[in-house]
Amino acid sequence: MSPTFKSRPTINIVGGNVITLENTFSGQLYEDQGATCSDLTDGDLTHKITVNGTIDLTQPRSSEQIITYSCENAEGAVQYDQRYVYVVFAACPTCKLLGPETTTVEASFPFSDPGINCTDNFPTAQLQFSQQSDLDVEKEGTYHVTYFASDRAGNTNTMCGDAAIVRTVVVKDTMEPVIGLKYHALDLTDASKKTAVGLMAEHSIWMSHKAMGLAIGCFACGVALIAASLRQSRSQPSHSVEEAQMLV
Fold first, then answer.
1. How far apart are the C-alpha atoms of 106 and 85, rounded to whole Å?
2. What is the mean pLDDT of residues 100-125?
3. What is the reported pLDDT for 167?
4. Which band of pLDDT confidence, cut at 50, 70 and 90, is reported for residue 185?
5. If we measure between CA atoms, which residue out of 130, 152, 156, 150 comes closest to residue 25?
6. How many other C-beta atoms lie within 10 A of the C-beta of residue 25?
7. CA distance 95 to 144
8. Domain made up of 10-88: CATH architecture
């Protein structure tokens, strides 16, 4: 007795046997596109397909994750086929400027950078931001600030074809010069300090005048004492030679 040959149905996987998906942290679940099954005798057997396997989109892997399809016809013949799913970090952060693309800042004043806003499959908190700039607020001119964002997989906002994010900063000197005066360690550009220093100056001048008056008075007293001494010496009789010797 010859063995009975059972023909197997044919499985066609929708979307291909190998697909690559970007990982996600949003809790999104894998949705399989499914497959179709048919047989020469039984016709369409898609409703007979059994699917096994799960795909985790939150964990990228170097190896594939597998979905297995099986389909059985009326004769009991079973056909198998598989889909290989690769979950990778492939998407790049997408960024846009916050604030104007071109801004003007007064020379010698700090530039307050509005920054950028980025979205990615990774949470924003896990993105790393950096910038390159030749900005010098002490010199008039036109400068540029270029912004970068990278995710945990090392993908940057310029790796997927997007143009670099650049802000133009124009530094201008439009203010009149300000002369600042100082009295010792005090800055006289402050009105309150001007008043305080003015009082100090007036007090110092008064003290100087007072000291000068005392000095003049003391000088006058000294002259008077010398004159009185001379008058006294003239009114006394002169000593004899003997008395002078004795005094010596």
1. 56
2. 89
3. 97
4. low
5. 152
6. 12
7. 17
8. Sandwich (2.60)
DSSP per-residue letters across 53-76: ----TTS--SS-EEEEEEEE-TT-
Say which amino acid occupies 244. A
Q: What are phi and psi of 238, to 5 degrees?
A: -80, 150
Between residues 194 and 159, which one has the greater pLDDT?
Answer: 159
Using 50, 70 and 90 to split pLDDT, how confident is the model at 126? confident
Chain-centre distance for alpha carbon 201: 48
Boundaries of every domain in the chain? 10-88, 94-172, 182-241
Other CB atoms within 10 A of residue 86 CB? 16
- How many Cα atoms sit within 13 Å of 152 on the Cβ side? 13
- The CATH number of domain 94-172, selected from 3.40.50.2300, 2.40.170.20, 3.40.850.10, 2.60.40.10: 2.60.40.10
Q: Which residue type sits at 81?
A: D
Percentages of the chain per state (helix, strand, coil), in multiples of 5 = 25, 30, 45
The pLDDT-based confidence of 168 (bands split at 50, 70, 90) is very high
